[in-house]
Amino acid sequence: MKKKLEELKAKLAEKLEAAEAGDKDAKAEAVKLGAEIESLEAAIKEAEEKAHLLKLIGKKPGKDDETVETPARSLGEHFVKSMPKTHEKRFTIAAKAYNDPLAIGTPGSPQVPRALVTDIDKNIVTEALPETFLRSLFGAESISGNALTYFVEGAIESNTGSGQSPYGFDPTDEGAAKPQISFADPTAVTVALDKLAAFIKETDEYIDDAPFLASAINGRLLNYLRLREEAYLLTKLKAASITSDTTSWANSATGQDIADLIFEKIMKVQADSGFAADAIIMNPKTWQILRLAKTTTKEYIGGGYFADGQGKQLWGVPVYCSSFAAAPVSGAATGEIFVGSFKACASVVSKGGVSVEATNTDTDDFQKNRMTIRCEERLALAVRRPAGFVKIVKAATDPQ
After folding, report:
1. How many domains does the chain have?
2. pTM (2 decimals)?
């Protein structure tokens, strides 16, 4: 077969030369020869593999039997080949006829080692992680530098006499002086990019021997980056100059009281910023209080557990549950609810997106056959209209 393969390759070279010269028939014959060569190469490969298996099994000694010693291809194969003859029986598996009833062994029998009857599921059961959503609520933009400066418009100034209009335009008589308006200088706000980063180290052997495990661990880097990103954005939102109400959520507030308070803040966001609220963020335990609220007759305000739901919504505004928002604790000033016009009033500023890089030259990685895998991104939160957000914090004690 190998001799025929060489002959076919020589013919193919001739046909390709003729095809390049413009011979269409030669081109068609070259295609056929190529297919025949591929088929023959596959047959040769299969024959070589069978021959190698026969050598591993071995033959009965005889004067006409002169096997050629083949080098071991792995450390394990070298160990088996080097095993003294006195230990050969330890590695022998008895072969039985198909119709022999004793051929069906048990997991504990020497004929059927446990490893041969154990199926391996390579789908990793991953750790349950909280859902991330916060970044998608904000607007998005990218920059080329390492910081962003934006300007917040100053307040309107007017010299209207009647003071009837907050915007400076008053009815004026014919020939009378018109009111003047002006705007205070804008305020510059600068946000610098922060870098969220982490790395892991894995050995070359681990990556080679268990690639499905290695890829699963590497993929987790991105999952944990998203979680850290979620906490980062909520922390930055808290640090912005947004309206904070620390007295309205009383310690004894019911689900109805909290829902009424949220509606007030939805209206406040629109009145103060000019934009309608598009999201509410709270801890899952806060949502539980609202969802399980009942009337005095013990009926669920939001419908029972068999009622058709419309997702998580309050007053038509989507609700997102985040474990990074503080949970309500009785008798303590913990428990947060964020109401805001996220898309219109703030945006996530980023540069370059998420970067995942790997190297074997970090410190002594090359010496120790290790790989360092790093995952990072640069981002910042620009809250352009703080009036578009309200944070409700539960009071430690009820207002007097």
Report:
1. 4
2. 0.62
